[in-house]
């Protein structure tokens, strides 16, 4: 980082089905909670970055920068960024650039998505905008379909069984029970994952992150100090189309972003106490752990089966348990890490958020110091 960027406050709505709340209402709730948590006034914010993917298609609302800015009395400069399911973390990355370049002192970062108002087919089609419209979408693929292909290939290559894969969602749902902001807060046994409705073979309903509404907001500052500092913010990209990748059981953007983030933070991956990773589908959690070299290729399931890992993985419940309002997830992950580091008094946490089938990946490392 080219400047100290402190996390001074955060807020969010509970993720879930909010049929009585519009996209602007969700954003307002998260923003208001973050400002209160930071102990600042709205006037202290001098820029806004909002991450959102499908607001225009589903809610008929574009211009989310201006819309969010209008919530504050002084209407600070604001912009919206889009990077599919990584929109939230790319908004954080953009805010870091504004702070590091001294364009701003205190930035409000918002991630928001409203998904449950539309039919699932409309949502699947809007989400497929994150795929390659010339090579992948014409094959009839949806995102569950893409990750179904990835899971099939992975099981073929490494011998992962259906029963083993079910351990992933079961664990993340167990974690979500303790999170009051999670969409799903009850236990899900591995057996019920294996026997849930088929969605895209071999993936079943409970392998998939759900359709969700929600918003999260954080406030980053270089002039207001806090014990929580962003030690790294790294963005990487890969070929958009699966057809152009040498493998579909490993994501180069994750490998690049995570490796560069550790270098930027000057830490070894073993120093990370809490990891929030992008488990849009259960198989993605295993691949991500392997791409970040917490497990060898094909061995990610060991972290769920043996439970020997000292680092926590998706203690919040992840996308599976918390829900995945796509633009909100990357911002909410930073807020979760802050809560986890404060509670455990550990030093480093990492947030991994990707968009599409890993075509865009953003990794943030949050450092917690006992003394500001
Ligand atoms: N996890 C846990 N429970 C889920 C769930 C999920 N992913 N999705 C739905 N449920 C629950 C619902 O709450 C509902 O419970 P209820 O009957 O008690 O109310 C029940 O399962 C059926 O839900 P429904 O909405 O009818 O499911 P659906 O078949 O319409 O949609 C999916 C299920 C998996 C197709 C949909 O959630 C989906 O497309 N997920 C992937 C989203 C995606 O691609 N995101 C981008 C990632 S890159």
Quick structural overview:
The chain has 372 residues and is an alpha/beta fold.
How would you describe what is shown here?
- With 372 residues, this protein is α/β, with parallel strands linked by helices.
- The protein has a domain at 6-118 and 212-221: 3-Layer(aba) Sandwich (Peroxisomal Thiolase, Chain A, domain 1).
- Helix content is 37%, strand content 19%.
- The chain has 13 helices and 12 strands.
- It has helices spanning 23-38, 55-59, 64-69, 87-100, 120-127, 143-158, 162-176, 190-194, 252-265, 282-291, 301-305, 318-322, 326-344; strands spanning 6-12, 47-51, 78-81, 106-113, 198-200, 203-204, 214-221, 228-237, 272-276, 312-313, 348-355, 360-368.
- The protein has a 5-stranded mixed β-sheet. It has a 5-stranded mixed β-sheet with strand order 8-12-11-9-10, sandwiched between helices.
- A hairpin with a 4-residue loop joins strand 11 (348-355) and strand 12 (360-368).
- The longest helix is centred in the C-terminal third of the chain and has 19 residues, at 326-344.
- The protein is globular and about 55 Å long.
- The two termini are 18 Å apart.
- The model has no long low-confidence stretch (mean pLDDT 96).
- Bound molecules: coenzyme A.
- The site of coenzyme A has 17 residues, from helix 5 and helix 6.
């Amino acid at each position: 980082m080219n400047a100290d960027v402190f996390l001074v406050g955060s807020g969010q709505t509970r993720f879930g089905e909010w049929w009585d709340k519009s996209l602007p209402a969700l954003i307002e709730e998260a923003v208001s909670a973050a400002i209160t948590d930071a102990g600042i006034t709205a006037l202290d914010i001098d820029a806004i970055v909002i991450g959102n993917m499908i607001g225009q298609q589903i809610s008929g609302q574009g211009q989310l920068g201006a819309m969010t800015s209008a919530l504050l009395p002084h209407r600070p400069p604001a912009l919206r960024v889009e990077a599919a399911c990584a929109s939230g973390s790319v908004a954080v990355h953009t805010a870091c650039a504004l702070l590091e370049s001294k364009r701003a002192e205190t930035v409000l970062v918002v991630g928001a998505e409203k998904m449950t108002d539309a039919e699932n087919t409309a949502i699947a089609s809007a989400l497929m905008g994150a795929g390659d419209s010339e090579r992948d979408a014409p094959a009839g693929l949806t995102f569950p379909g893409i990750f179904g292909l990835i899971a099939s290939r992975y099981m073929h290559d490494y011998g992962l069984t259906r029963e083993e894969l079910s351990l992933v969602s079961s664990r993340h749902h167990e974690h979500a029970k303790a999170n009051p902001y999670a969409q799903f807060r009850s236990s899900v046994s591995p057996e019920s994952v294996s026997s849930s409705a088929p969605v895209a073979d071999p993936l079943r309903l409970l392998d998939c992150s759900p359709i969700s509404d929600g918003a999260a907001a954080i406030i980053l500052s270089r002039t207001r100090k806090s014990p929580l500092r962003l030690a790294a913010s790294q963005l990487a990209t890969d070929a958009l189309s699966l057809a152009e990748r040498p493998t579909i059981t490993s994501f180069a953007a994750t490998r690049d972003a995570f490796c560069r983030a550790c270098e930027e933070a000057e830490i070894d991956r073993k120093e990370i106490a809490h990891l929030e990773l992008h488990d849009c589908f259960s198989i993605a959690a295993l691949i991500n752990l392997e791409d970040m070299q917490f497990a060898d290729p094909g061995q990610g399931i060991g972290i769920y089966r043996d439970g020997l890992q000292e680092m926590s993985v998706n203690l919040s419940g992840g996308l599976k348990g918390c829900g995945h309002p796509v633009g909100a997830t990357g911002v909410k992950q930073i807020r979760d890490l802050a809560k986890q580091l404060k509670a455990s008094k550990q030093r480093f946490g990492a947030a991994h958020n990707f968009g599409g089938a890993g075509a865009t990946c953003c990794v943030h490392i949050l450092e917690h110091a006992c003394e500001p």
